[in-house]
Amino acid sequence: MRDPKLPAPATARRSPPGLAGTLRRHSAWLLLVWFALSVCLFLSAAPPAASPLLRPAVLLRSTKPRALSAATTAATTSNSPVRIYVYDLPSRFNRDWAAADPRCARHLFAAEVALHDALLGCPAARAARPEDADLFFVPVYVSCNFSTANGFPSLSHARGLLADAVALVRREMPYWNRSAGADHVFVASHDFGACFHPMEDVAVADGIPEFLKKSILLQTFGVHGPHVCQEAEHVVIPPHVPPEVALELPEPEKARRDIFAFFRGKMEVHPKNISGRFYSKKVRTELLHHYGRNSKFYLKRKRYDDYRSEMARSLFCLCPLGWAPWSPRLVESVLLGCVPVIIADDIRLPFPSVLRWQDISLQVAEKDVASLETVLDHVVATNLSAIQKNLWDPVKRKALVFNRPLQEGDATWQVLRELEALLDRSQRSRVGSSRRCFIGVVKRLIFRWFTGD
Q1: pTM for the model
Q2: For 42, what's the count of Cα atoms within 13 Å in the CB-facing half-sphere?
Q3: Is 441 exposed, middle or buried (0-12, 13-18, 19+ CB in 10 A)?
Q4: How far apart are CA 394 and CA 392, in angstroms?
Q5: In angstroms, rounded to a whole number, what is the distance separating the alpha carbons of residues 158 and 67?
Q6: What is the SS3 assignment for 362?
């Protein structure tokens, strides 16, 4: 026991901690920082399976050895090419359909066949190993079932056929499961894309099949703003028109154009279809009502096999919506040098950076059909020659044609460039996510450090 007479001992003062002490005191925080940075770096280097558009780093070898790859062009380019592995599926998914009916490779939905052929026909870009692939093409022809009474292809089997193909790929190949299909490419060249129905209300109710929602879709359907049938990564492509169309008639600048405005196609006097729906949102009926007896407008409701010769004689070719916004008339008009007059609100058009649609076409709102003649007269009096000069550029025509084999600048080449841009955006997105992850972790740790939380 201390003697109460003795002075109390001086209280020992704690000396300021040095660097070693600080590190010991905050070792747990430093470990947490190290772990968080490691996670961020891992996420940027290897995206999760559900992330769209990944570039594979290490792939297993396929159980089927056939591997073909397509570069963005058969010629050399300064950009890194996108490399595509084409699955060698059993012929019941593709070639049997093409062999059963020659229309399969030539009709307006035939981009699925043309793209497949073009990719297979690129020996200079063929990858020796599937490990080199950026994307995987699944060739399924769902538009070749010509079993309907009206001669148009039936899509009733599309979902089942695609589901069977995906099940086969998942079972026999390692690549789908690695990315949940995010680096797999499908063609959906139908009225409402991968919703696989020509009527919009039914298409929207059905939606895109769940097994395709993480994949990349090449589809003719596209609109500005949200839509159920484009709720997947996608590229808008042109409808298929046989390449020889551009060669059958005189060069556009040499054609004699004695028709002011042309349209041949379905125009119902009473727009309410037998299905109870209004065809073309009544636009074609309005065209017939306002201009059916106007001598400046060449409007015909009956089919005519040589209708393209009529387009080649026309200044303006009307391209109103049908059930869907897009139409093969868009491509045919450009190939034949007739200024497309697009009457389809909110439509998204293919390859806008190359074609610059605002320079080669006119867009008229659906509600303004009654003033269409005034609009066209104004164009003739002001800038028709400038529009025609841009339209008649051979580069524009080539960009809308699926050649076989692929040619630099054609539609398949443009698709590959669009896919390459998707991959580039995906990489930048992952780098940005990693940077945001790092900054967020550091901010939280600094706050906790100073607040003692």
Answers
A1: 0.79
A2: 7
A3: middle
A4: 6
A5: 25
A6: strand
